[in-house]
Structure formats: structure tokens, C-alpha cells
Inverse folding.
């Protein structure tokens, strides 16, 4: 498990058939102060006028192999439940960011858990590999 440095490290998340397509995990930034995860959501015709999105205040990141939970601290572009971002059409897009407590800057696989017993409306993601050799230091 290699560690780079204390500088922020950006990981572009490639297409992965095991990850949900909507919302799509776009990138992860590991910083000394936080873990940032950026998403893109495309409203769909499944719901009237594209439906809505929101994030549970209990959302956390977990490094596989550890029981420690890195808690959600802040969001941008999405509301915390019970509030909702309501779409106006099935063609709307919403980009949003979740900020969590900082995870270690080392090779790892993370899970993003909104609900431990998820419904189809919850955003849970499993098996996101972060390899330090594939990350880019940013300043």
C-alpha cells in the first residue's frame, strides 16, 4: 500500500459495470482535511418531471477491510434529507459533491453507503478502487 504525500490526490473514476450509472461517481479527491466525491445525476423518464434527489445525513465512506466509518460532513449541489432537489424535466442534470471525514492516502477500495439496508432510491456504491499510482496530485 503506497502513500504519495499530504497533497490532495485526484482520482478520475473510469467506467465500471459494477457501479451504478445514475448518479455516476465522477471523481474522488483525498485531502488531509476531507474526502471529496463528485457525482453527476441525469434525471430520467422513470419519474414525473425527472423526480428528485436528496442525501441521507447518515451517509458515510468505508474502506474495505475496516469497520471505521468516515462520516458525511457537507454537501454542495444536493440537499440533506428530508429536503429534496426537485427536477423540472426529464432532461435535467445535477452535479453534486459530498465531503466526508478524510480517509488515509493509501491504496484502498472504498464503499459509499447512504443506507445500510438500501432501497432502490438509495445511493450505495461498492468496490471503488483508489490506487495511488493512478491518482494525480493537485494543489
Amino acid at each position: 500500500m503506497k502513500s504519495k504525500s499530504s497533497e490532495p490526490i485526484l482520482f478520475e473514476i473510469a467506467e465500471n459495470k459494477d457501479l451504478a450509472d445514475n448518479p455516476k461517481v465522477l471523481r474522488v479527491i483525498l485531502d488531509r482535511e476531507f474526502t471529496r466525491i463528485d457525482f453527476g445525476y441525469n434525471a430520467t423518464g422513470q419519474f414525473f418531471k425527472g423526480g428528485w434527489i436528496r442525501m441521507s445525513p447518515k451517509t458515510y465512506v468505508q474502506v474495505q477491510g475496516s469497520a471505521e466509518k468516515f462520516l458525511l460532513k457537507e454537501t454542495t449541489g444536493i440537499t440533506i434529507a428530508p429536503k429534496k432537489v426537485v427536477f423540472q424535466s426529464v432532461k435535467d442534470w445535477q452535479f453534486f459533491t459530498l465531503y466526508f471525514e478524510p480517509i488515509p492516502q493509501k491504496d484502498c477500495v472504498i464503499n459509499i453507503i447512504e443506507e445500510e439496508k438500501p432501497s432502490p432510491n438509495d445511493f450505495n456504491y461498492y468496490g471503488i478502487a483508489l490506487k495511488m499510482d493512478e491518482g494525480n496530485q493537485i494543489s
Remarks:
- The chain is about 0% helix and 40% strand.
